[in-house]
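User: I'm new to structure prediction. If I give you an amino acid sequence, what do you actually give back? Let's try with this one:
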Amino acid sequence: MGFRTEQIHAGVEPDPVTGAILTPIHQSTTYVQESVDRYLEKGYSYSRSANPTVRALEHKLAKLERGADCCTFSTGMAAINATMVALLNAGEHAVVSDVAYGGTYRLCTKVFSRFGVEFTFADTADPAAVASSIRENTRLILTETPANPTMKLSDIAAISKIAAKHGIPHAVDNTFLTPFYQRPLKLGADLSIHSTTKYLDGHNATVGGAVVSASKDMDEQIRFVQNATGTIMSPLVAWLTLQGCKTLSVRMDEQSANAMRVARMLEAHPKVVQVCYPGLESFSQHELAKAQASGFGAMLWFEVKGGVTAGKRLMDALKLWSLAENLGSVESLVTHPVTMTHADVDEAERKRVGITDGLVRLSTGLEDAEDLIADLEQALGKI
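Assistant: Good question. You get back a string of structure tokens that encode the predicted 3D arrangement of the chain. For your 383 residues, that looks like this:
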């Protein structure tokens, strides 16, 4: 079946008791067993280990990503954390994209480093840089593509080949493009990670995460950590995300079309110094964007003349674009990464990877493109 059909029907069936077309919210802690000898016959005992509503979402996401199975979590960072806990031991090493969400950088440098795990933040836009970063004790390669917030791409297929050659799992944070536009497992990756908070939910209603595994063995490793640490997704969050998934393709296409129009306007504006959007021909990795994904997404960034001061004035002058940290919602959002999402990244590291003080990140929503553009134009007129 096609993606648009599967996003609606995969993983869910009408309720066998009532015929309800929506999966029920199984808000239950425990499940009564028929007998000791028939323990777990129905697959559920305690909702930390498994919950029917949550499993429906996991089955859907596994199907959409073409994976063996999926584990969901309380947040996107819990999903990243579980991946690292499952695959890394003290004294081992991981290669991580040098541009990634600030929370990922913080987890590596402020938490796992305390337990003797070592990290190399490599330029994963260059597969050779990834290969040269691998050590004898490397046990994970984690790439984020497109990267937050610079939109830098990693060649998933090329890095997956390098990882496979060394017997190292390759995990890809696929939050920005979702399985509708990009399927890392199909390109050779072992794990596809999501902050379901973003496009999969799409409505600023929930916080959650997911890890889709290419193999049952890998899923079992992640699922063990999920159960052992208890960082599970709640049934209500799973239920809301199930509903969000049904419109994923429609939202992604419309939001991406809006992003293209906004990017083209900004690229032509005399007060804008630079615009970065994978759909623009001026984007340095435009050909890779076309090759490994079927769409360009709804995220972009730009800088204005006048640097940080002008950028802050612009953000404060916007009326329709909301100043907020999230992304991927139907509402258009503007973020100042240095102050907000990447404040925990060392200043020298931010500058090294191109997260400048004047960078303005846009998450384009579903409003009329004409209104979004008009709001940006009036704000640009005030700097």
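You can read the tokens as a compact description of the fold. Here is one thing that stands out. The chain has two domains: 3-243, 248-380.
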